[in-house]
Automatic annotation (TrEMBL):
Pfam families: Hydrolase. It comes from the Bacteria. Signal peptide: none annotated. NCBIfam families: HAD-SF-IA-v3. This is HAD family phosphatase.
Amino acid sequence: MPASATVAAVVFDLDGVLTDTETIWDEVRRGLAADDGVPWPKGATEAMMGMSTPEWSEFMATTVGVDGDAETVAARTVGAMAARYRAHLPTLPGAQAAVRRMAARWPVGLTSSSPRRLIDTTLATLGLTGHVRASVSTEEVARGKPAPDGYLRTCELLGVAPSRAVAIEDSSNGLRSAAAAGMRVIAVPHEALPPAADALALADVRVGSLDEVTVELVENLGA
């Protein structure tokens, strides 16, 4: 980012950054496979992180071998996720404060691999709907993460060049997606599902929690 390209927007990921739901996705998908008597393939969890709904549901149907076509698998999975969210939506420490802190200084966006239904439910549950100006589900663009499509669309909706936006990500594919979009990237690695070393190397800065994502830190990325 050139010295003149000051930060003009901040874009959050959702699962694994604001909500501790990456593990729930994994539990639900593994549960579907177990219910259908299908063994869980090695690397399947990591492969699906960042995929859009059409992508991961096709992967579940064909590569994992869960019963039903992609549309059926998506419906089964999202229905199970919604039930888990209604029972309890685990939020990562500092999530709501971080979004509000950034929104007080810049336009805030969200780019998630979750389907629209779960994005809207989550933002409403966390009381953040009014703080997020633009949100994009990767099911609404051509390609999911690690492709840059979702982040590029969010920046477009915010009216900001990607080079002037900062992304906050946790997963390998998320970090790759934001970097490919030409954004500055803050990595907040998830303890249970840490990103690959090569993906983490794409981040401009790594923090231990969202409490460390301060206005000063973000401003320095554009300095």
